[in-house]
Backbone:
């Protein structure tokens, strides 16, 4: 199906483990984004990418790594998970800059024990 | 710093009553403005957006929003709320640079029957 998908939808891990969250979009959108959603904070931008092999930090990048070798994929890796990274993670994509609409995936709920 | 403020954390309205959700922004220039809705356990869906032109913007599901430059506001309205409108609503803004969105902290809408 066309659209933007995230996997896994739910993940439980332990402190110190590496975790990778996947994001895939079928629109060939140039821009892709990772947000985390926490109570009282709304959504905050972690990293974004303007195109394959071009990534940049957002508001809260510490502890996260991204890559974008293909236009359609934008994985987010927690190199050594911490309890403070327990959150709901949303991936989004948009076709252009200049205020173009972002389309969001269904989210990944991550619990770090 | 650029910011988006939603002063109401939680609002309860009766089905059939009118609704207004507040949003204020703090930007150097007028940003692109968005309203998203998030149903429980779901991703975010765009309700409407404002780029320029007519300050009253129509969206999906019977929602509208009015941009007021003098008040730095972009309030969301609906004349008659339905029980299915119960959700969390996010106001967001972008300067257009890489379409990075800054979100408000959200307003949770409860609808009583």
Residues:
């Amino acid at each position: 199906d066309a659209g933007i998908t995230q996997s896994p939808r739910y993940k439980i891990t332990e402190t110190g483990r590496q975790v990778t969250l996947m994001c895939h979009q079928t629109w060939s959108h140039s821009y892709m984004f990772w947000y985390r959603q926490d109570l009282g904070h709304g959504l905050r931008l972690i990293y974004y990418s303007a195109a394959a092999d071009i990534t940049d930090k957002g508001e809260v990048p510490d502890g996260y790594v991204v890559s974008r070798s293909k236009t359609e994929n934008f994985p987010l890796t927690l190199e050594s998970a911490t309890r403070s990274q327990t959150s709901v993670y949303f991936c989004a994509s948009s076709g252009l800059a200049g205020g173009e609409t972002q389309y969001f995936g269904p989210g990944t709920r991550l619990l770090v024990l | 710093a650029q910011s988006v403020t939603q002063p109401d954390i939680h609002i309860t309205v009766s089905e059939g009553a009118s609704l207004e959700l507040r949003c204020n922004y703090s930007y150097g220039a007028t940003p692109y403005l968005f309203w998203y809705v998030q149903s429980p356990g779901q991703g975010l869906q765009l309700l409407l957006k404002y780029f320029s032109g007519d300050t009253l913007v129509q969206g999906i599901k019977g929602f509208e929003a009015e941009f007021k430059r003098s008040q730095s506001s972009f309030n969301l309205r609906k004349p008659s709320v339905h029980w299915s409108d119960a959700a969390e609503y996010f106001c967001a803004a972008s300067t257009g640079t890489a379409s990075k969105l800054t979100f408000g902290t959200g307003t949770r809408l409860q609808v009583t029957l």
Chain A touches chain B through 28 residues (CB under 8 Å). Residues 29 and 95 of chain A are 4 Å apart (CA to CA).
